[in-house]
């Protein structure tokens, strides 16, 4: 019996390895970000860039794990009125973000399209945090001191891949939901990042 279980374990490991496929490559896209929460008002969306690299390990025909690392521009815009005059504020919060995604691959027999859905946690490491104020054609910019150095979020979305030889060209659409406040002041206001993101990627098969 012991020999049987040993054989079974070796067989499963070998089968998993033989099914495994790996990809690595660049990705880049557009963010439409905002800041949400009980303590934020009148915030509007801001566009920005996101780009970096990903690594996908496919351990069965239907499941893969995909860590990523990329630079992402978040933030929001806001209008404030003082004594009848409107001041435009732009909050630029930039991070190095590292998500760990579990992908459900959806094979379609006879099709060259490779659809997938995914979800997973993400941690962002603050790169810069600035606010720019614009009024009557003049502007000034300064650092925001009370933004936390890390940001935690949940990523979920889906995408389509298209074979290019042994490689893959594709795109995905995702939403990054902020799970923790980014406010580092003593009051710790409820202020979270919220990002809608569209990417294109190219995966080199290994």
Counting DSSP H or I runs of 4 or more residues, the number of helices is 1
Number of strands: 10
Shape: elongated
Low-confidence stretches: 7-19
Q: What would the CATH topology be? A: Porin
Strand order of the largest sheet: 1-3-4-5-6-8-9-10
How many strands, what sense, and barrel or not for the largest sheet? 8 strands, antiparallel, barrel
Structurally, the number of domains stands at 1
Look at the structure and give the CATH class: Mainly Beta
Q: Terminal Cα separation, in Å?
A: 38 Å
Strand content: over 45%
Return Rg in Å: 22 Å
Helix content: under 10%
Mean pLDDT score, rounded? 90
Overall SS class: mainly beta
SSE pattern, N- to C-terminal: HEEEEEEEEEE
Question: What CATH architecture do you see?
Answer: Beta Barrel
């Amino acid at each position: 019996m012991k020999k049987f279980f040993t054989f079974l374990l070796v067989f499963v490991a070998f089968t998993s390895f033989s099914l495994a496929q790996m990809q690595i490559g660049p990705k880049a896209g557009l963010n439409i970000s905002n800041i949400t929460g009980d303590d934020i008002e009148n915030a509007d969306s801001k566009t920005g860039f996101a780009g970096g690299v990903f690594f996908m390990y496919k351990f069965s025909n239907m499941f893969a794990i995909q860590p990523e690392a990329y630079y992402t521009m978040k933030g929001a815009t806001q209008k404030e009125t003082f004594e009848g005059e409107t001041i435009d504020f732009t909050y630029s919060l930039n991070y190095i973000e590292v998500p760990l995604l579990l992908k459900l691959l959806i094979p379609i027999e006879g099709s060259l399209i490779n659809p997938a859905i995914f979800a997973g946690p993400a941690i962002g490491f603050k790169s810069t945090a600035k606010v720019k104020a614009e009024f009557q054609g003049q502007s000034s910019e300064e650092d925001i001191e009370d933004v936390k150095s890390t940001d935690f979020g949940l990523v979920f979305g889906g995408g389509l891949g298209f074979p290019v030889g042994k490689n893959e060209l594709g795109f995905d659409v995702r939403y990054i939901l902020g799970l923790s406040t980014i406010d580092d002041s003593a009051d710790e206001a409820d202020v979270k990042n919220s990002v809608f993101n569209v990417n294109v990627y190219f995966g080199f098969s290994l």
